[in-house]
Design brief:
Layout lengths: L1 H10 L1 H20 L9 H10 L1 H9 L15 H13 L4 H8 L2 H33 L8 H27 L5 H11 L2 H10 L6 H23 L1 E8 L2 E3 L2 E3 L3 E7 L6 H20 L4 H15 L1 H23 L2 H10 L2 E2 L7 H36 L10 H29 L1
Antiparallel strand pairs: 1-4, 1-5, 2-3
Helix pairs in contact: 2-8, 5-7, 6-7, 7-8, 7-12, 8-9, 9-17, 11-16, 11-17, 12-13, 12-14, 14-16, 15-16, 16-17
Length: about 425
Amino acid sequence: MWYQKIIQVFKIPELRNKILFVLGVFAVFRLMANIPISVIDAENLKNFFNQFQMFGLLNVFTGGALDRLSIIMLGLGPYITASIILQLLTMIFPLLEKMYKEEGEAGRQKFNQYGRILTVPLAMLQAYAMLVLFQRQGVITFMSPFILLGSILTITAATLFLMWLGELISEKGIGNGVSLLIFAGIVADFPVNMRQLLVGWDPARIPSYVLFFAMALIIIACVVLITEGKRNIPISYAKRVRGTKMYGGVSTYLPLNINPAGVMPIIFALSLLMFPQMIVGFLAGSSGIIGGVASGVNSFLSNPWTHGIMYFLLVVVFTYFYTAVTFDPKTISSNLQKMGGFIPGIRPGESTAKFMYFILNRVLLIGAIFLGLIAVMPSIVGSITGILVFSFLIGGTSLLIAVSVVLETMRQINAQLQMREYESF
């Protein structure tokens, strides 16, 4: 039973210490999310987030840090953006691609270090743009150049500190630190959502509430099904004799996930949509032609239909792109051939790679459309039921991150429990 697993986890000192460490990091994260940076006009701040829905969505992943203008108002956004830029550059610069794909763990570490370095200027740029935007909107009542510089440095340092905490969590081996911190920001809004639901309780809307939670359960079940879904490709190994021993002669399978890209395409699409909206929001208050053009673009991007269609298409495109960067059928085919493995009925080498490309593209189409629908699902369900709280129950990045993080953390903990059982055996 599940409660026996929890008891077993806390009986093992090493595993218990790791979980307590992660919970301690979550506490630090929540503390930082409540430390504001400057003098804030609460009424203008509330109106701003009602007007710009994209910033409200970004606020979900910072655990409410953005709408409090806290020192971690950017969350892990600059680090994720830096990772996106470097992933894109691997398709342009062969040396960067070789470092990422062919140099093993040392190459990955160097690649990640470049991402950390790139995070610094991106965090400073985003912090400056956000602060100036909030000041122009009247959210921040006063900010001298000295206070502005100090706020930018504070936000940048807090972002780097958060990135460091995420990497410390990853080193503990019970999940991806960045994903866990985003997950903590998502579930932190649960008490607020409960309060909103209770305060706005209307007995006449009980059918809407029942419909909402029924749709939420169905969507969560579909997310789990697609996240765990796989297309198994049969693999056979030829018999080989080395010395007096015989190897191979077995059959297994190569699993291809229906959603091999995970949550990254939605995060990429969200970041790409956020960046131009931040820029035009920054320029919208300017006078002349630039201000007029920026205001027009801002109105266009703020339209719910425009935003939904662009969001869906970007998620589909980034699903294919991210899978192309991280999954290489040619390398897998080459490794299979070296180990004496083959797909029954398919020639080793180039034919195997083409077959895997064919299967991958068919599977990926389902995964890409699914991700796109999940991204725009909050708006669809909210418009049907009229309930906008608990958005993480009905889709979008928040739901997919929550489900993926929970499943991955459960796998990591189960793997560590099994390892200790084998050691005791």
